[in-house]
Specification:
2 domains; alpha/beta; single chain; Rossmann fold; five-stranded parallel beta sheet
Length: 392
């Protein structure tokens, strides 16, 4: 399969050029290992392999000795060490800290679960490494597929590069099964795998909606606090993105304060929800909204890491799908499954602009073939032009 250039690669290379180390977290099969194969390193360890894990679990000091030997070998330069899936042996983070502090090595550390690192009270090396996040493919990294293809099959590299529908379905089914077996059952994250499996299906089906923990807990017969714990597991295992509401307002006192969750990949979401490949017409709009949200999260991570994505909702009034919050400005965004947006599609954006007059622009992301000016500060953009919203 052809290598897909990843937008995060130049960021990693620039970080390494500054003699800093990198902690690269991201869900399984998003391309972390493939990307690292493109970066020359002096020593590589993958803790996915049981034999490698057992070797260092028995004698962790051996890891320090091996890396120091690489430093001592000619040419005597700061070696770059790659350690893949560090959550398998969280203690290696202490080894990395020691070697970084003594200027014996530079590291790229990868992981696919922040939960195990946190549960083991692992040292995440604050101040010593630059933490980056590896997402599935963004639109700019794979421009060819149709919008419908992206909404149904997601953007995991292995799925994108598979040409047969049956293979893609099998890959996605395997992903969900592997997650339940290896991340949840093997790590004993929950006592009742059956109830968690039902929760996973429900959470996938409800993705993109404002979450009501009590209502959802009644559907699967668990306490609402258990439901909250289950969502935290998904978040810690990097399977969902939590989006908080924007609640600051001088005029409204009842803005929604509950969050939304987006599955990190729409193909995984669909299979986890046990949905087919022929969504009902109203579903396309929801999937499109989720896709835009995910793209915005990924672009902000890369281009504007201090910015945050929110949504804005008054339960008794208007709502805006997405709001980008920067230090001094807000950018409201509506998402419409339409190729000809009209005045009704911008009503809530107009209300938002009146209530937050400092917002410089507002956007409708849609399926139009070219940009359309919809109002004084409102622009409709084709979904292919989504990156333009970050220019203001």
């Amino acid at each position: 399969m052809d290598y897909i250039e990843r937008a995060i690669e130049p960021i990693i290379r620039r970080t390494l050029a500054r003699k800093r180390s990198v902690l690269l977290l991201g869900p399984r099969q998003t391309g972390k290992t493939t990307l690292l194969q493109k970066i020359p390193c002096d020593y590589t360890l993958s803790f996915v392999q049981p034999s490698v894990r057992q070797k260092y679990e028995r004698n962790l000091a051996l890891l320090t000795q091996e890396i120091e030997a690489v430093k001592a070998a000619p040419p005597s330069k700061l070696p770059l060490v790659v350690m893949d899936e560090v959550q398998k042996i969280p203690e290696v983070m202490d080894v990395a800290q020691d070697l970084i502090d003594r200027k014996k090595a530079q590291f790229i550390l990868t992981g696919s679960s922040a939960r195990k690192l946190r549960r083991s009270q692992t040292n995440l090396l604050p101040g010593r490494v630059i933490a980056l996040h590896m997402d599935p493919l963004m639109h700019l990294e794979y421009p060819k597929p149709s919008l419908e293809d992206r909404l149904l099959y997601g953007s995991l590299p292995m799925v994108y590069q598979s040409m047969e529908t049956s293979s893609r379905e099998a890959d996605l089914e395997s992903y969900v099964t592997t997650y339940l077996e290896e991340e949840v059952r093997a790590e004993a994250l929950v006592r009742n795998l059956g109830s968690f499996g039902r929760f996973l299906e429900l959470a996938a089906a409800e993705a993109g909606a404002v979450v009501n923990f009590r209502k959802l807990s009644q559907k699967i017969g668990v306490a609402h606090t258990t439901m909250m714990d289950y969502y935290q597991i998904l978040e810690d295992c990097l399977l969902v993105e939590r989006v908080e509401p924007y609640t600051e307002s001088k005029t409204r006192k009842k803005l929604t304060r509950s969050q939304k969750y987006l599955f990190f990949d729409l193909g995984v979401r669909r299979v986890a929800a046990k949905e087919g490949t022929q969504p009902l017409q109203p579903t396309w709009g929801s999937l499109f909204e989720q896709w835009v949200g995910l793209e915005l999260i990924r672009m902000l991570r890369l281009k504007q890491p201090r910015a945050r994505l929110h949504f804005w909702r008054d339960p008794a009034g208007p709502e805006v799908d997405w709001v980008i919050r920067r230090e001094k400005s807000l950018i409201p965004i509506e998402v419409k499954w339409s190729d000809a947006p009209n005045s009704d599609d911008i009503k809530h954006l107009a209300i938002f602009l009146r209530e937050y007059p400092d917002a410089p622009k507002a956007y409708v992301i849609c399926r139009a073939s070219r940009p359309l000016k919809m109002g004084d500060k409102i622009l409709a953009l084709p979904w292919q032009d989504l990156p333009e919203v970050l220019l203001f």
